[in-house]
């Protein structure tokens, strides 16, 4: 990112985690297939798992079991969910990596005074583990709220607004960055502009997400933010 950054930004930029900041698919896929194999079910291809991410860990398990024609109610789902948490929690960043340009973008925004946060449907502990394991947590402080930290979660506006509140900024000075209809929905419900990355985990095309701006690389983030009024 080569553009000069204003030195006293009064904006907040809130990011989704999986499929936006970090390519978490490899480690999620390993843990999920381990559960399926133990259940005697056919494992999933990475392309199948990719389209199941975004609704939180329990939703991931439910979708995987549905894919294998297993009822998603009862003890079997709960047991599979618990094992998934154990497996993934033990090794959440073995193969996962920030997307190209993420570190540089976060550094530029942070140095420019922007407040940064993470609004994710991933369980709180797992989100923190990923951010810490990839040495990203210092960018966000306590402005990280997972999908199990509140009674509601994305696309409910209150999930996103709770993260904004933790940044100390206001919704009218906030921009959301995500990869899915859940992220766009949360932003729309909160009346916050939204940028979508086109390399995430949604089954929708980037155009179908109907974000304000679509980017293909984090090098494009700052110009997109400026277009949406970031410290204009």
Describe this structure in words.
There is one protein chain. The chain is of the alpha/beta class and 232 residues long. The protein has 2 domains: 12-23 and 97-227, 3-Layer(aba) Sandwich (Rossmann fold); 25-90, Orthogonal Bundle (DNA polymerase, domain 1). The chain has 10 helices and 8 strands. A 6-stranded parallel sheet has the order 5-4-1-6-7-8, sandwiched between helices. Strand 4 (115-119), helix 6 and strand 5 form a beta-alpha-beta unit. Helix 3 crosses helix 4 (75-90). The radius of gyration is 17 Å and the shape is elongated. The mean pLDDT is 93.
**Which CATH top level class of the largest domain fits?**
Alpha Beta
Spatial strand order of the main sheet: 5-4-1-6-7-8
Number of strands: 8
Number of helices: 10
DSSP helix fraction: 40-55%
Structural class: alpha/beta
Number of separate structural domains:
2
- The CATH homologous superfamily name of the largest domain equals HAD superfamily/HAD-like
Topology:
Layout: E1 12-15, E2 22-23, H1 25-38, H2 46-50, H3 57-67, H4 75-90, E3 97-98, H5 102-111, E4 115-119, H6 124-133, E5 144-145, H7 157-167, E6 174-178, H8 181-189, E7 194-197, H9 206-209, E8 213-215, H10 221-227
Parallel strand pairs: 1-4, 1-6, 4-5, 6-7, 7-8
Antiparallel strand pairs: 2-3
Helix pairs in contact: 1-4, 3-4, 7-8
Summarize the structure.
The protein has ten helices and eight strands. With 232 residues, it is an alpha/beta fold. Helix 1 (25-38) packs across helix 4 (75-90) and helix 7 (157-167) packs across helix 8.
What are the salient characteristics of this protein?
232 residues, Rossmann fold, 2 domains, 10 helices
């Amino acid at each position: 990112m080569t553009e000069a950054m204003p030195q006293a930004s009064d904006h907040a930029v809130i990011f989704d985690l999986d499929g936006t900041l970090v390519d978490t698919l490899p480690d999620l896929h390993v843990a999920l297939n381990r559960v399926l194999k133990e259940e005697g079910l056919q494992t999933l291809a990475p392309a199948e798992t990719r389209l199941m991410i975004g609704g939180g860990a329990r939703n991931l398990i439910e979708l995987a079991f549905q894919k294998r024609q297993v009822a998603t109610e009862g003890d079997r789902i709960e047991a599979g969910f618990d094992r998934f948490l154990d497996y993934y929690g033990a090794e959440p960043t073995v193969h996962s990596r920030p997307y190209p340009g993420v570190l540089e973008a976060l550094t530029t925004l942070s140095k420019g005074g922007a407040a940064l946060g993470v609004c994710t449907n991933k369980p709180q502990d797992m989100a923190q583990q990923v951010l810490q394991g990839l040495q990203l947590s210092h960018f966000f402080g306590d402005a990280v709220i997972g999908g199990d930290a509140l009674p509601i979660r994305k696309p409910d506006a209150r999930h996103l607004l709770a993260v904004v509140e933790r940044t100390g900024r206001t919704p009218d000075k906030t921009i959301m960055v995500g990869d899915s209809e859940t992220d766009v929905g949360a932003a729309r419900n909160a009346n916050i502009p939204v940028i979508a990355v086109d390399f995430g985990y949604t089954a929708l095309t980037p155009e179908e997400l109907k974000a304000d701006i679509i980017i293909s690389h984090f090098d494009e983030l700052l110009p997109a933010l400026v277009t949406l009024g970031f410290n204009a």
